[in-house]
Write a structure and sequence with these properties.
Elements lengths: L2 H18 L8 H24 L11 H22 L5
Helix pairs in contact: 1-2, 1-3, 2-3
Length: 90
């Protein structure tokens, strides 16, 4: 996937994940984009693990299912960040 697709996927998935996840997540557009890209990697890896049973680092593609997977991965990333950073999301 080229860099423009990564940026678009990151912005879409990161923004939707921040809107869905309860609480307030700081950061600007760059943080949102990075969150979405990390979410695409986490989500793609989880889907590959469920489909093949092998742990392999893959990324979601820029498609409707790929965006949904990236959103789920970004929500997992927000949860893990809050868990390790010790923040409460009220």
């Amino acid at each position: 996937m080229n860099i423009i697709a990564w940026i678009i996927l990151g912005l879409i998935a990161g923004a939707i994940a921040k809107a869905i996840y309860p609480g307030r997540q700081g950061g600007g557009i760059l943080t949102t984009m990075i969150l979405g890209i990390i979410g695409a990697l986490i989500g793609g890896t989880i889907v590959t693990l469920l489909e093949t049973g092998r742990l392999q680092l893959t990324a979601a593609a820029l498609s409707i299912p790929g965006v949904i997977v990236a959103i789920i991965g970004a929500i997992v990333a927000i949860f893990l960040w809050n868990l390790f950073a010790g923040r409460a999301s009220y």
